[in-house]
Amino acid sequence: EPEVTQTPSHQVTQMGQEVILRCVPISNHLYFYWYRQILGQKVEFLVSFYNNEISEKSEIFDDQFSVERPDGSNFTLKIRSTKLEDSAMYFCASSLDRVDYGYTFGSGTRLTVV
Amino acid sequence: RKEVEQDPGPFNVPEGATVAFNCTYSNSASQSFFWYRQDCRKEPKLLMSVYSSGNEDGRFTAQLNRASQYISLLIRDSKLSDSATYLCVVNRGYSTLTFGKGTMLLVSP
């Protein structure tokens, strides 16, 4: 079964440092997403990406965040200057067609900011 | 009113029991509805989409009532492997999903 791959599985970083979370979506999917889940809380939308540009973003996705699809396979989330409250599980997801059929999520990157 | 609200749980049931999860959503313009399952510290996995006519997949039955903005999931003959958190999920916009906080299910022998 095709899967979404995320690396690293766990990243520890110091407050103020930049981090890049990497994702390889399913190859024929067209829509890409980042969600996050703070421990004990619900999964929250960050950003969606289609046709090489951001299609939607949430209020969480401020100027500290950026996304990029640098080549035909990778999809990255960059946090420029991490804060303690950025500590969360970050999930990448992809879908073939908008939201109608649900997404496939990657196994996540646990980001710990110290 | 929260965008997607679920029973707080947890639900503790014995193997073989039938368990029902309830969910309400606030956005009447929502068009797509799902139940996801999330194991502890893992990614959400799509369990089933929910259609207006109701739909069934083995031991799982989902219902949607658009008038009352209510979604349900029924699990029959619970297995130990059904222990997980069940997430009610609704589309928020063109391509985004809004998740409920989830209801934890613990199935015991």
Task: Summarize the structure in words.
With 114 residues, chain A is an all-beta fold. In chain A, the strands form 2 sheets. In chain A, strands 2, 4, 5, 6, 9, 10 and 11 form a 7-stranded mixed beta sheet that branches. A 4-stranded antiparallel beta sheet of chain A has the order 1-3-8-7, with no helix packed on it. Chain A has no helices and 11 strands. The model of chain A has no long low-confidence stretch (mean pLDDT 93). Chain A has strands at residues 5-7, 10-13, 19-24, 31-37, 43-50, 53-57, 65-68, 75-79, 88-95, 104-105, 109-113. Chain B has 109 residues and is mostly beta strands. Helices cover 0% and strands 53% of the residues of chain B. Chain B contains no helices and 11 strands. Chain B is globular, with a radius of gyration of 13 Å. The termini of chain B are far apart. Chains A and B meet through β4, β5, β9 and β10 of A and β4, β5, β9 and β10 of B.
Q: Tags for this entry?
A:
heterodimer, A: 114 residues, mainly beta, 11 strands, B: 6-stranded mixed β-sheet, 5-stranded antiparallel β-sheet, 53% strand, globular
Q: Quick one: how many beta strands of chain B?
A: 11
Model regions low in confidence, pLDDT < 50 over at least 5 residues of chain B: none
Shape of chain B: globular
Structural class of chain B: mainly beta
Uncertain spans of chain A: none
Largest sheet report of chain A: 7 strands, mixed
Percent of residues in helices of chain A? under 10%
SSE arrangement:
The complex is a heterodimer of chains A (114) and B (109).
Chain A: E1 5-7, E2 10-13, E3 19-24, E4 31-37, E5 43-50, E6 53-57, E7 65-68, E8 75-79, E9 88-95, E10 104-105, E11 109-113
Parallel strand pairs in A: 2-11
Antiparallel strand pairs in A: 1-3, 3-8, 4-5, 4-9, 5-6, 7-8, 9-10, 9-11
Chain B: E1 4-6, E2 11-14, E3 19-25, E4 33-38, E5 44-49, E6 55-57, E7 60-65, E8 70-75, E9 84-91, E10 97-99, E11 103-108
Parallel strand pairs in B: 2-11
Antiparallel strand pairs in B: 1-3, 3-8, 4-5, 4-9, 6-7, 7-8, 9-10, 9-11
